[in-house]
Write a structure and sequence with these properties.
Length: 469
């Protein structure tokens, strides 16, 4: 059972305290430029070290670093550690303004900040990798029930099975209708019972998590499920509908005793939009300098490989439905767009997107460019011009937008991106509907840190060519 693993996480504050002391010892040594006995450093600064430890642990608790968040990624863990240590050391530095007799000098605190971030991040990331290794070995996994028997429920079960590092073990499915088990001949569906059997199933199989994967379930039934889960110490999760995703922007109010719910503007406006634009310009200019030699070589190879221009300009739809020319290195033969109609029957993508493996229109160099996403490098110029952002929804074709439902158009509220949640979540392997939901989730929960995380996650996604074709 996963709960047995929690004992190991109680030691985190003690490990943090140990590495904070080590960081200050190193900082004191670097500031002094001569050997300082660790014992003498601790003895002379015991009260200050205790204050630093209490500060770091308190701030780390605010950053939720002591919660049993087993699904936290290594990038998230580093971000939380960086944030908590930075806030702690800034507070510690602030205190030096009032206590001039503090033995630790500012350079000591600066060095301690660097080593605390490195040491605490390192041991915590190792711990996460160790826990994921245990999960892959089938140790301390959490037993899960999925409510729902449709294709979405089966897809969720397959994704959980394909990622054992999350430590989830799907025991079976629960039908929220009164269907008999014999109604599900599909071997992929192991229906254990109906909602009426939920409480007994929770006890029988030691269920720790229940995931509701159906959308047409009543609120009364959800509340009943939540109550049963709480009574049996099982965590309840659900796959959100599109309207559930905007919950973060909902505020309550009242006028003359009449309750009102207000849906506020999305986060990517005003100051947030300005910060995102500034970061886009900084990233673009930096990458343009670094990648210019690579782009020059690619241009030469394209000209050698096949006749035609180096760049391919394609109409895409950007923010607020405005069309723009998106730049890419040409990876197809000249006239490829005209041949598309003949290949529509081979489309392997879901929904409004056209994608086929082994596309005969792609050139030899083009295959390499697409596999490593090198064909997208010229989009840096789109970012500089303001047509695109580094992170955002996938830029759609005008023909795709014509067939959008009204809720699909929400993804046009912000600038499209070179990469995004759709890129790091499967690229060509995810359905169009899932892609739109990811885009909406990104828009609703935007932050600069989220953009940085997505860009960092794009590197392994491109390197392993996940879903690229």
């Amino acid at each position: 059972m996963r709960k047995n693993l929690l004992v190991g996480f109680w030691i985190l504050p003690f490990l943090d305290a140990f590495f904070i002391v080590i960081s200050f010892i190193i900082g004191d040594y670097l500031k002094s430029n001569y050997f300082v006995s660790p014992i003498s450093t601790i003895a002379a600064n015991s009260r200050l070290l205790l204050f630093a430890i209490v500060t770091v642990i308190a701030v780390s608790n605010l950053f939720k670093l002591y919660e049993n968040n087993f699904l936290r990624s290594e990038i998230d863990e580093f971000g939380a550690v960086f944030g908590s240590i930075t806030v702690s050391m800034l507070f510690f530095e602030f205190m030096t303004l009032f206590y001039r007799d503090m033995i630790f000098k500012r350079m000591t605190i600066f060095y301690a900040w660097i080593f605390a971030v490195v040491l605490l991040s390192f041991y915590r990331i190792l711990l996460i990798k160790f826990v994921k290794w245990l999960y892959r070995k089938g140790r301390f996994v959490s037993n899960v029930l999925i409510i729902g028997t449709d294709e979405g429920s089966k897809l969720l079960a397959r994704k959980i099975k394909n990622h054992p590092e999350f430590g989830l073990n799907v025991i079976g499915f629960v039908s929220f209708k009164n269907e008999e088990k014999s109604s599900f001949p599909d071997s992929e569906i192991n229906v254990l019972g109906t909602i009426g059997d939920l409480e007994s199933l929770l006890i029988k199989f030691g269920i720790e998590s229940v995931i509701c994967a159906v959308s047409d379930i009543s609120n009364d039934l959800i509340m009943d499920i939540v109550e049963k889960c709480e009574l049996n110490k099982a965590q309840f999760k659900f796959v959100p509908k599109v309207l559930d995703i905007i919950e973060s922007r909902v505020t309550s109010d009242e006028i003359l005793g009449v309750p009102l719910i207000t849906v506020n503007e999305i986060k990517l406006y005003g100051l947030n939009a300005f910060l995102k634009r500034v970061s886009d310009i900084v990233y673009s200019l930096t990458l343009l300098i670094l990648l210019f030699p690579v782009m020059l070589v690619i241009a030469i190879l394209i000209k050698i490989d096949s006749p035609g221009p180096v760049l391919f300009l394609q109409k895409r739809v950007g923010k607020n439905g405005k069309e723009f020319n998106m730049y890419k290195f040409r990876s197809m033969k000249v006239g490829a767009e005209e041949e598309k109609e003949k290949l529509l029957h081979k489309n392997e993508a879901d929904g409004l997107i056209f994608k086929i493996r082994n596309d005969p229109r792609i050139t030899k160099v083009g295959k390499i460019l697409r596999r490593w996403s090198l064909d997208e490098h010229p989009q840096i110029f789109n970012v500089i011009k303001g047509d695109m952002s580094f992170v955002g929804p996938r830029p759609p074709l005008p023909s795709e937008v014509k067939n959008y439902n009204s809720w699909h158009r929400k993804r046009l509220r912000v600038s499209p991106g070179i990469t995004g949640l759709w890129q790091v979540s499967g690229r060509s392997d995810i359905s169009f509907e899932d892609m739109v939901k990811l885009d909406i989730f990104y828009i609703e929960s935007w932050s600069l840190w989220q953009d940085i995380k997505i860009m960092l996650k794009t590197i392994p996604a491109v390197f392993f060519a996940k879903g690229a074709y």
